[in-house]
Design goal:
alpha+beta, Mannose-Binding Protein A, Chain A, seven-stranded mixed beta sheet, two-stranded antiparallel ribbon, disordered C terminus
Length: about 200
């Protein structure tokens, strides 16, 4: 398992002359903690490489804060599913989340991990209300406690759901070797338009 965790940025206003903006090609969202940017990359990588690729853009595999973000992800991925030759009408992509240690494989007592937000956490600390999307969309089975990272499955006809990837020792989605149709990257918006504090004489 490997996913990058976001750190809360700190900003300093210089004469109150700044604004937040996403890079070209990134979609902006209004989160409770500020403007947030996401981009889908239609490249098949294992989870750990996808996380490393996001880091090259100072980003990480994101969590999902709202239905607005969820719907945008679904609509963004959906056209790519039909591009898979002779493929199924569904596709997968990486988002950023992991099973918490108390609910991990071979723990002596994980009976209390009865809902998704008990067992998993987003790796995205620029996110508020983290349980909402997890509890609504994550398919949880505590019989598969070796499944540690989160993917989103998009069905072309009837929406999407969150699932979790599994170890190479079990059948199913393997977070090391499985390569879905792509991955999401997310990050807080950049600051643009700061006035310089330098002066000329």
């Amino acid at each position: 398992m490997s996913f990058l965790q976001a750190k809360t940025p700190t900003w300093q206003s210089i004469n109150d002359k700044f604004e937040f903006a996403c890079p070209d090609g990134w979609q902006s969202f209004n989160r409770a903690r500020g403007t947030y940017c996401m981009k889908f990359f239609n490249v098949s990588y294992p989870q750990y490489i996808a996380a490393a690729q996001c880091a090259l853009s100072d980003a990480y595999l994101p969590g999902i804060e709202s239905e607005t973000e969820w719907t945008w992800m679904y609509n963004t991925i959906r056209p790519y599913i039909r591009q898979i030759p002779n493929g199924p009408d569904r596709g997968y992509f990486w988002v950023g989340g992991a099973r918490i240690p108390a609910c991990s494989y071979n723990m002596s007592d994980s009976a209390w991990c009865t809902k998704p937000s008990d067992a998993f956490i987003w790796g995205d600390y620029y996110l508020t209300g983290p349980a909402t999307i997890l509890d609504k969309y994550l398919i949880l089975s505590n019989t598969d406690q070796i499944q540690n990272t989160i993917i989103m499955r998009v069905n072309y006809a009837d929406g999407g759901q969150l699932m979790y990837s599994v170890s190479p020792t079990l059948s199913g989605v393997d977070e090391t070797n499985f390569t879905p149709i792509g991955y999401m990257c997310g990050k807080p918006a950049d600051i643009v338009g700061l006035k310089s504090t330098c002066s000329t004489s």
